[in-house]
Write a structure and sequence with these properties.
mainly alpha; five-stranded mixed sheet; 60% helix
């Protein structure tokens, strides 16, 4: 049984993790908002147990992600940008997610009920080799998920929740074979998940994990070689008790820190809402959901008889909890993100049963889709640099007015190397590799990594213009400087969202306060969506409009800048 070469696997992971964390500023809206709370805490402007951003509480009642960012900012050397330091710390969370998922699939594949049927005359794959190949396939499946690319590269509680969900998943998967690693993983994973804004999920995952351990007490998990573990009913019961203890710890921390919130929002019984959820499920989890369904079909007899093993029970429970959260909360995409490690695990168990026809269909679809995407990225980049082809260049000018393209040799070389590697990967996949279980997921994972890397190199200046708050803040600062006011002092605001507030405080170094009748700040920044209520709360006779900024890239970033009229 052939495993994916370790160097190739590490390069895959590096090509996926590093782009998106390097060379950019915090993006709209959740990325900048989370960073704003971290900056407030690091500067001593907010309570560490009750984060506030100009008196506004965070949308997600999380603490641990903000603590992590604030601590990193406080220990960051003077020459390093705080936002880069925070992204580096969160990149380690993404890397830990990938590692935890690999080991979770590996240990689940070691389960006797997950092993392939032994041949009559021998010659089958060794259990360890089979498990490693399956783990490679599971990791490739996770990186191939379309919905994971952007959300996993933001410094938000969603990435922390994903990481600690994967760590808890690994801990429950490895319990029959290890002691120290699973114990540490679960003791950290479930409480950290609760502190990251998902206490209900932590409790549900813990209760389900304890039940799996209890029901697993009669299954044999004896291994050969250096990994031999005596799996006894007493050991399973002890693990079940430990899981319950960690669950109670997570619930107790959430109760003590007042993190429990009722956020159940049942979807409306309308075609529009259900169609939106269906589209999200289809594209966000592509390409793992068809493979996960295939796994359930292949194991349908065991599922209907109730005689299915740990490798299916754990994955199905994690997927069910995440899907339930997706359907009953407002942030459906960030909730669905937590299902991806378990969905990738289910997808991996479909790989040994793929027929040539299905494998060829996956390869051809992936090849055409990601090659077309890569060509489109290259064509638009060339158009921004040279003006040719004219239509893509005109589209960029229309959608991003004022954008001035820049050229980087480093970005060009990285993009060229990635494209050549993709061509080599396609050539390799066209060969015969029957012994490689994971071969059908090489192109999906490689295609996602290719397009993500191309976007984060060739398109990075354009994405910065459209997704960053820096152009907005600079436009306001230029207007203030044109009025001979280089240091405006305090600035009143009206109707700005959390991301805009964080951006003006961090990028513009402005002292903000809410607009009120008796304030004396020289400037007032107003969000155009709330200008109809502005006369009710602010005396406009004391202000003179100096700038009306409208951006086509983001209509909700249209603002008005007023200057106080001198009496």
């Amino acid at each position: 049984m052939r495993r994916l070469p370790r160097l190739a696997l590490w390069l895959f992971c590096a090509a996926y993790v590093l782009p998106g964390f390097i060379g950019r500023s915090p993006w709209k809206t959740a990325d900048m908002t989370s960073f704003g709370y971290m900056a407030e805490m690091a500067a001593g402007m907010a309570n560490w147990l009750q984060p506030r951003l100009l008196s506004l509480p965070p949308d997600i009642d999380a603490l641990l992600p903000y603590w992590l960012g604030a601590v990193v900012m406080k220990i960051t050397p003077a020459g390093m940008a705080p936002d880069f330091a925070v992204r580096f710390a969160f990149s380690l969370l993404l890397a830990l997610t990938l590692v935890a998922t690999w080991y979770a699939v590996y240990f689940l594949a070691r389960s006797p009920r997950a092993q392939p049927v032994a041949f009559a005359f021998g010659g089958e794959a060794q259990p360890a080799d089979y498990a490693r190949a399956m783990a490679d396939g599971g990791l490739l499946a996770l990186m191939a998920c379309l919905g994971m690319a952007q959300l996993s590269h933001e410094t938000t509680p969603a990435l922390a929740q994903l990481c600690f969900t994967a760590v808890s998943f690994y801990a429950l998967a490895a319990m029959p074979y290890r002691s120290r690693g699973p114990a540490i993983g679960l003791a950290l994973g479930l409480p950290a998940l609760a502190l990251s804004g998902a206490p209900s999920m932590a409790v549900l995952l813990g209760l389900g994990g304890a039940l799996v351990c209890f029901l697993d007490r009669h299954e044999e998990h004896g291994l050969t070689g250096p990994e031999t573990v005596l799996h006894t009913p007493a050991r399973s019961l002890a693990w079940a008790g430990f899981v319950l203890a960690c669950t109670l710890l997570a619930a107790g921390l959430a109760e003590y820190l007042d993190l429990w919130r009722w956020r159940i929002e049942l979807p409306h019984a309308t075609w529009h809402d259900w169609r939106g959820l269906t589209r999200l499920l289809l594209w966000f989890t592509w390409p793992v959901w068809p493979l996960a369904l295939l796994t359930l079909w292949r194991w349908r007899r065991q599922l209907t008889s109730g005689n299915f093993g740990r490798h299916l029970a754990l994955a199905l429970w994690f997927v069910a909890v995440a899907l339930g959260t997706t359907l009953t909360t407002g942030s459906a995409d960030r909730s669905l993100l937590l299902a991806l490690p378990a969905l990738a695990t289910l997808a991996a168990f479909a790989l040994p049963t793929l027929s040539r026809t299905v494998a060829a269909l996956i390869d051809w679809f992936t090849l055409l889709f990601f090659t077309a995407c890569a060509i489109g990225i290259w064509v638009i980049w060339i158009a921004t640099q040279t003006g040719i082809p004219r239509q893509p260049a005109a589209n960029v000018t229309r959608l991003a007015p004022g954008f001035e393209p820049s050229f980087s040799w480093l970005a060009l070389m990285l993009a060229a190397v990635a494209t050549l590697v993709w061509a080599w990967l396609v050539k390799w996949r066209a060969g015969r590799h029957r012994a490689a279980i994971w071969k059908s997921l090489v192109l999906p994972a490689g295609g996602v990594a290719l397009c993500w890397l191309l976007m984060m190199t060739l398109w990075l200046p354009l994405l910065e213009w459209g997704r960053s708050y820096v152009p907005l803040v600079r436009s306001v600062q230029n207007a203030m400087e044109a009025d001979h006011d280089r240091q405006p002092g305090c600035v009143e605001i009206y109707g700005l969202n959390r991301g805009q507030i964080a951006a003006f405080r961090y990028h513009g170094q402005m002292r903000l306060q809410w607009a009120q009748q008796k304030a004396s700040c020289p400037w007032l920044i107003v969000d155009t969506e709330d200008q109809h209520t502005l006369p009710r709360d602010v005396d406009l006779s004391a202000w003179s409009l100096r700038l009306s900024l409208r951006r086509r890239t983001e209509t909700n970033d249209d603002i008005l800048l007023y200057k106080r009229v001198q009496p």
